[in-house]
Amino acid sequence: MNFKKKLIDFCNNKFNLIILVSFFLIFIIDRILKSYLLNKTSFELLPFLSISLSKNYGVSLSLFSGYVGIIIIFSILILSYLLFLLKNNPTYKSSKLFLIFIIAGGFGNLIDRIFYGYVIDFLHFYIGNFSFPIFNFADIFIFVGAFLLAFNILLKKESGLFEFKK
Predict the structure, then answer these.
(1) Which of 48, 50, 61, 98 lies 20 to 30 A from 7 at CA?
(2) 3-state secondary structure of 16
(3) What is the mean pLDDT of residues 67-95?
C-alpha cells in the first residue's frame, strides 16, 4: 500500500482527524504562547495567576538541571515509545486521545530543549503566600493526558493498553 493511499485511508477516519487536529492545536498554541511571551515581562492576569517567564533547564520542578543532552535523549525515547503505543495499540479511542495529549505536550517541550537548551515556562499560580511551580501550556496537556490515561487503566476500562497486536 503506497503512502498516498495510507494517507487517504487515515484521513477518511473521523477519529484519526480528531487525533491529528488535537496534536497540531496543542502544539501550535504552545508554540505561539511561548514565542509571544519569550521577551515579555511578568504581568498579572488574575488575582491568582500571573505570566512570569521562567527558563527550566531541567524537567519537572527543575530536576536534572544541567543535563539537557540526556534529557533530550530520554524525551525522544519516551515520545518514540508513546508513538509506538499509539500506533500498535490502544483500540480504545480515549486512550489514543490521552496519548496524543502527552505526545503533543512532550513534543512542544522537546522543541524548546533542542532550540533553546531549556523549556519556556510562564504560567504562575499562587494563593496568598503559597506559590505553585511555574509551568507552561504543554505541561497542562502532559499532566491531563497522563492523569486520564492512568485513571482509565486503574478503572480497568482499558486494561489491554499495554498488550500489543500480533
Answers:
(1) 98
(2) helix
(3) 85
